[in-house]
Amino acid sequence: MNNLFSVTSDGVITVDTSKIKESFQEAYKGALGSDLNLEDSTVQGQLILNDTENLTTTMNEVVTMANSFSVYTAKGKALDVAAAYFGYYRKNGLKTVVSATVTGAVGTIIPAGSIASNGENEFVSLNKVTIPQSGSITVQFQAKDIGAINCAAGTLTTIVTPVTGWDSVNNELGGIVGALEENDNIFRQRITANWLNIRAKTILGALIDNVAQLADVVSVLGRENYTDESIMIDDETLSPHSVYLCVLGGVDADIAEIMAKFKTVGAGVNGGTDISYYDEVAKFTYNYKIRRPTFKPITIKVTYSENSYTPADVEDIIKNILTQYIADNPFQIGQVISSVVLSQALDSFNQANLLNLQVANGPNFVDYLQMQIDEVGVLHEIVFEKVG
Questions:
Q1: What is the distance between the alpha carbons of residues 207 and 334, in angstroms, rounded to a whole number?
Q2: Pairing mode of beta strands 375-386, 294-305
Q3: Of 144, 202, 212, 215, which has the highest C-beta tally within 10 A?
Q4: Residue 252 CB partners (closer than 8 Å, separation 6+)
Q5: How far is the C-alpha of 68 from the C-alpha of 188, rounded, in Å?
Q6: Nearest 5°: phi and psi at 58?
Q7: How far apart are CA 118 and CA 217, in angstroms?
């Protein structure tokens, strides 16, 4: 047998089981005659099935071993080992992040670390805010504990930390759900994205790389303005010779410490969230700005028709598959949310004829949505259209 293995962009792969079986059948006929009966019910057919199974198992083990040496293809513990060679380690877990509106008396300061509850779990505010003239402001909260802690829309309503002048809290959208352990997909994406930043050999690359390693950071996006003039990217104005970081999750002081260590002295900063880091050695407080992303509700629409395998709860099954896929591959800041990519979650689904999948942030469904550099998508709803 020749050409059992090949190297592709997806790593080392092997031939299909059917090809292996065909090779054994050809070998048997070459040795014992072309008219040999090779039906599975015959003795020689059973021998071929046994040989095929044994060789397939061995080849799959070889493929797994070969791919375990690469960060791009390794899985589980093998990925941990491969990543450790480059100084990257899997995060012990991710915490759910929720965007909520707080209201109260104008001028009220709500400190970072203030706690609100959804009745089941407590969530900690990530940054200090001052309630403006409008009487309300958006604050991001992160679960106190790691794991897949759900915070449905309209449930984060109880103020736990007493702050005079803080009247109410409420989340219009559900949270971006965490996980007990950083899964292979997220870990791999973080490593490869950081490699790109390192290869860029820029201050911004170092900032993004190191902020992304912080335990509670879920997503980070950065931009830089090298010019002598202010520039506009999406709705953000970047001042001359400055950096911009938009960070989902993470503690303000930890992010500020990274900026104190890696940002070029004299480079400006952009964003609407003030953060600071006090250097105990220098006895000096570093003040910076970052942006916390705006949550954008994403609705997915699945169009399908029934077939002979379609159960009564087919829509619930599809919804669970897509929800789990997004939990395993959470939306990132500034991401293109593509219907083609989301459809991959349903590639092996055969309990209905899947005719179309589209996404929307509003009334109009499209094939893809481009989040801006200060936006992150959050799954809001999955709706269905049955044809026929």
A1: 17
A2: parallel
A3: 212
A4: 112, 126, 127, 128, 273, 275, 276, 290
A5: 13
A6: -65, -45
A7: 22
Structure tokens at 220: 């980070």
| The pair of three-digit structure tokens given for residue 258, joined into one six-digit string | 């990274």
Cα-based torsion angle of the residue sequence 136, 138, 143, 147 in order, rounded to the nearest 10 degrees: 140
Q: What is the DSSP string of 58-118?
A: HHHHHHHHHHTT-TTT--HHHHHHHHHTTT----S-B--EEEEEEEESTT-EE-TT-EEE-
CB-based contacts of 28, cutoff 8 Å, min separation 6: 36, 38, 44, 48
Rounded-to-integer distance, Cα 178 and Cα 250, Å: 13
d(CA 149, CA 218): 14
Q: Which two tokens stand for residue 248?
A: 């989902």
pTM > 0.85: yes or no: no
Q: What's the chain's average pLDDT?
A: 88
Structure tokens of 245? 């970081």
Distance, in Å, from the CA atom of 84 to the CA atom of 89, rounded to the nearest integer, reads: 6
Helix then strand count (H, E) for the chain reads 8, 22
Domain ranges of the chain: 5-67, 97-170, 202-290, 295-386
Task: Give pLDDT tens digits for 85-118.
Answer: 777 778 878 899 999 999 999 999 999 999 999 9
Of all residues in the chain, the percent with pLDDT exceeding 70 is 92
Q: Which two tokens stand for residue 190?
A: 């973080």
User: In this structure, what token pair is assigned to residue 149?
Assistant: 């802690």
Nearest CA to 355 out of 302, 301, 318 is that of 302
The residue to which tokens 């669970």 are assigned: 320
| For residue 121, pLDDT beyond 90 | yes
Give me 169's structure tokens. 């809290």
